[in-house]
Amino acid sequence: MTRCFAALLLAVAIPAAVGAETLGSVLQSHHVPAGRFPEPDLAQPITSWAASDGWAASDGTPFLLAYYIDDGSQSLRPPLRVIRYDPASQDLRRTDIPETSALFHGQIPMDCFGSALVIGEDHGLIHVEMHVTPSAVCLLFLSPRLTLRKALPGGLLGMLGDNLAVVQEGEIHSASVLPMHIVVYDLRRDRLTAVYPPAPNPYRRQFSRALQAHMPSDDWCMTQNAECNPDNFDSDLTGNVAVNEAAKVFAFEARYDAGGFGDEAQKQVQPLTVAYVYRLRNGRWEHREFLSQRLMGLFGVETVDELVARKPQAAFETPAAQ
């Protein structure tokens, strides 16, 4: 599974459900048998829900639904309710996940509580993305038995097998620049590893030097409430994260931008797109970076998707920063 987190941020302004949807109507529209649900439950209006995208019983995959009961207050009321139906085994599971202000013990932390945006299952791991604020999402991981395993700030970019998740962390919506941060979460070891931006990072240093040469005045920075730190600038994905699970390799393209540094910087400092390739080797994440425009000359491919699919190790046989 791969998906662009930038597109996800655009989706948060769109409600998952409009009008008087009920649990019964949603199950019916997805052709999920409702006979095992009590009639009062089926009649309940629901809100802020997410269901399996494009699901059909014939494809053999489980149907998933995350939702809240709509009590008419225009506010989300815990718990978050999750349903998993496996058409092959006829196994139907339901769980309620409450919000908590206490320590995390199988409940949703307060700073991760929000509308359900996306729900899916990969390698037996269920993931639910939650809209928390206009610029922040949170990621819940559940077992197929609907036991809550982890809550993380950010959105899912891809999975490498059943225990490694590539996650883009949330951003501060009101900040003058929006630098991207990507981590890999190891569910088996319950460990986060920051992978982007990596160090060393020659292209980021190159872009920082270009910004430094066209910095706005201190007065402009103060008036605009801008950070004006040339080492901290806008960056975002230009597409999806490409994943090769067998090789434990993933890659993406990051676009640097001079937004937030004034008109002069934006005119003089052109955006820069850099391809980053990562692999897991001996328990550590290694990376290589290349100008995206040089992918064809270096590897005979046009995109990082093609590189990761066809030549997952090629980037590591070539010196970085090409």
Concise overview:
This protein is of the alpha+beta class and 322 residues long. The protein is built from eight helices and 19 strands.
Structure report:
The chain has 322 residues and is an alpha+beta fold. It folds into two domains: 5-174, no CATH class; 202-317, no CATH class. Helix content is 17%, strand content 36%. It has eight helices and 19 strands. It has helices spanning 5-11, 23-29, 39-43, 202-212, 218-223, 263-268, 295-299, 304-310, and strands at residues 46-51, 63-69, 80-86, 91-97, 99-100, 108-109, 115-122, 125-133, 136-142, 148-153, 155-160, 164-168, 182-186, 191-196, 234-237, 242-244, 249-257, 272-281, 284-291. The strands form five sheets. Strands 15, 16, 17, 18 and 19 form a five-stranded antiparallel β-sheet that branches. It has a four-stranded antiparallel β-sheet with strand order 1-2-3-4, with no helix packed on it. The protein is globular. The two termini are 29 Å apart. 35% of the residues are buried. The model is unreliable at 1-18 (pLDDT under 50).
